[in-house]
Amino acid sequence: QVQLVESGGGLVQAGGSLRLSCAASGRTFSSYAMGWFRQAPGKEREFVAAVSWSGGSTYYADSVKGRFTISRDNAVNTVYLRMDSLKPEDTAVYYCAAKLWGNTGAELTAASRYNYWGQGTQVTVSS
């Protein structure tokens, strides 16, 4: 069992930055690929970014490529999402998720492939 707790969301002006954190419980964090998804009101949950279990591969949605950076620190069981040059269309609830031994882009861009989810953190970007 893995429990995920997101933090770092908030209100920011367009062009600003935020760093989201997702702290995971358990001793096997390094065995899990980690992903970030988001869901805006009235829209489906969408993939944002993911990092493989080894940390060797990262994946990004086209809409955030070049602006967002995902990273992981296995020493503190935490995955981060650095978000720069934020836009109003980035406004959403952001969720982190964990997938055991996840590695490929096909696995990690699909929400249905993840084993565990956090409760989400709200990010609001004002224009």
Would you kindly provide a brief summary of this structure?
The protein is mainly beta and about 130 residues long.
Percent of sequence in beta strands: over 45%
Mean pLDDT: 96
Structural class: mainly beta
Order of helices and strands: EEEEEEEEEHEE
- The overall strand count is 11
Rounded radius of gyration (Å): 13 Å
Helix % is under 10%
Number of helices: 1
Poorly predicted sequence stretches spanning 5 or more consecutive residues:
none
Largest sheet: 7 strands, mixed
Give the assembly state of these chains: single chain
Q: What is the overall shape?
A: globular
Ends apart, CA distance between termini: 40 Å
What would your notes on this structure say?
The protein is mainly beta and 127 residues long. The longest helix is centred in the last third of the chain and has 4 residues, at 105-108. The model has no long low-confidence stretch (mean pLDDT 96). The strands form 2 sheets. Strands 2, 4, 5, 6, 9, 10 and 11 form a 7-stranded mixed sheet that branches. Strands 1-3-8-7 form a 4-stranded antiparallel sheet, with no helix packed on it. β4 and β5 (46-51) form a beta hairpin. It is built from 1 helix and 11 strands, in the order βββββββββαββ.
Main attributes?
48% strand, mainly beta, 1 helix, 127 residues, globular, single chain
Describe the secondary-structure layout.
Elements: E1 4-7, E2 10-13, E3 18-24, E4 32-39, E5 46-51, E6 58-60, E7 68-73, E8 78-83, E9 92-100, H1 105-108, E10 116-117, E11 121-126
Parallel strand pairs: 2-11
Antiparallel strand pairs: 1-3, 3-8, 4-5, 4-9, 5-6, 7-8, 9-10, 9-11
